[in-house]
Amino acid sequence: xxxxxxxxxxxxxxxxxxARSWAADIGPGLVTTASDNDPSGLATYSLAGAWxxxxxxxxxxxxxxxxxxxxxxxxxxxxxxxxxxxxxMREHYSPQFFYFAVARxxxxxxxxxxxxxLAMGIALRVFCDGSLALLTLASGGASxxxxxxxxxxxxxxxxxxxxxxxxxxxxxxxxx
Length: 176
What we know:
By secondary structure, this protein is an all-alpha fold. The chain has helices at residues 28-36, 39-52, 58-81, 85-92, 95-127, 132-149, 152-162, 167-175. 72% of the residues lie in helices and 0% in strands.
């Protein structure tokens, strides 16, 4: 954020900031949070809740501290080294371990994206009749085209506003 520094002949007292919207400061964190609540995750949470009810809630007590610790370690490693976990893993671990870890994440993310694109196809099928396979391919193709053809800054602004749809979850809970 740029600050306007006053010159001695300036009529404004103190330091003033240019007018900015609070929404301009919300960025990758909000989009990442919204993208993590994807259809595959919601389906998993819903099915687990339907099958187990509150019986598996104790797992949160065990996994939450590990999740927080991992996030803290990752952010501190990045802050100290100036590089992410992948680059640091490549430098400090054997190639076999590094490629195994990367392959595992690649496989998991590939399946996750496939389920998300399938969910987009299912959502399109609700609005217009057609082949699920074709609608899914069209959704994936449109997503890729948008990412390749639209400059990142403009695409990021659109994604920020699309995350408002995530507040519908809260609305559904309140209505139910």
